[in-house]
Amino acid sequence: MFKNHGRRVLFLLASVWTGALFTALPARDAKAFVLVSKTPRRLDASPSSPTVTFKWNETTPSIKDKDKLFDGANKDLDDVEYMALMLQLAMDQWNDVHGSYLRLAFERDPTVVTDTEDRIHAISVSSKVGTTSAAFAQFNYQIDGNETNTIADCDIYLSDSSVSARNMVTTLVHELGHCIGLGHNHTNYQSIMGYSRSGNSYKPGADDKAGVSWLYPDPAVSDEAPAELVACGVVPGGSGENPRGMNVVIWSMLALPLLVALATVMTKGVFSSRASARGRT
C-alpha cells in the first residue's frame, strides 16, 4: 500500500514538473512585446513624417545623485537644465532602435499644461501622482469625438517627490514607451516596460525594441531580418539577461532527479510484481 502510494505521489510531482517545464518554453506564435491595448495604437507619425514632439513646461522634482549619470560630467547643473538632458537621453533610447522610423523630440514651453483634450503631448510634474508612484501616462485616442487607433494625446505626469537621476531616466523611458503604444510586460524581467525588473538599466530590452519596430516599421530596413524581433523572452548574444530561456534549463535540472527517482521506483515495482506473481504460481 505504501509503495503504491509513493509511486502515485512521485507520478503526480513529475506531471507538475513536466507541465511547468513546457510552460517555461516560449510560445511559438507569441509576440515578444505587450501593447497598450488589444487594438494596436500608434502616435501620429509616418516614415515621411517620423517626429513626434512633446512639450515640457520645465517643471521638475528635486534630482539626486547627479554624479551617477553622464559620468558625473553634468552634476553641477541645476535641476531644470539637468532634467532637459535626462529627457533627451530617455527619448534617444527609443530613437536609436534599429528598424523603427519613429523619432521623439521635446520643446520647452512653460505655459503648457497636462490636458488630454488639447492634442498636445505634455510632460509635467503633477500633484496627481500618488506617493507610491513615480509617474503615469494618460492617453486620448479620440479625434473629433471618434475613437481611433491613433494616440492623439499622451500626457506624462511626474511625481514631485525627490528622485535619483538614474531612476528618473528609467521612469521617463518607461512612460514614453506607453505613449509609443507599449503596455506592461509581465513575462520578461529585462523589459523596460515591465513592473518587475532584474537590472537597473534604463535601456529598452529586446522585447521593447521588437514592439516599437513592429508599431513603426522603417521601410528602409523592412526587407532585413528584424534584429530585435526574437522569441518571447529569449535574448540573443549572451547579454547577461535571464528570461524564459533560462527557466527551461532550471526546470530541467530540477525535474531530472525526480524523473530518475520515479523511473527507479516504477522499475522496482514492476520486478516486485513479477516476483510476487511467480511466487504464487
Distance between the termini: 22 Å
Q: How many E strands?
A: 11
Shape: globular
Q: Which structural class should the secondary elements be placed in?
A: alpha/beta
CATH architecture of the largest domain: 3-Layer(aba) Sandwich
Q: How many domain modules?
A: 2
How would you state the average pLDDT, rounded? 79
Strand order of the largest sheet: 4-2-5-10-6
Q: Approximately how much beta-strand content do the residues carry?
A: 5-15%
> Which stretches of 5+ consecutive residues score pLDDT under 50?
20-30, 225-251
Main sheet record: 5 strands, mixed
Q: Percent of residues in helical segments?
A: 25-40%
Q: What is the name of the CATH superfamily of the largest domain?
A: Collagenase (Catalytic Domain)
Annotation field: number of helices: 5
By CATH, the topology of the largest domain is Collagenase (Catalytic Domain)
Please trace the helix and strand order, writing H or E for each element.
HEEEHEEEEEEEEHHH
Radius of gyration: 26 Å
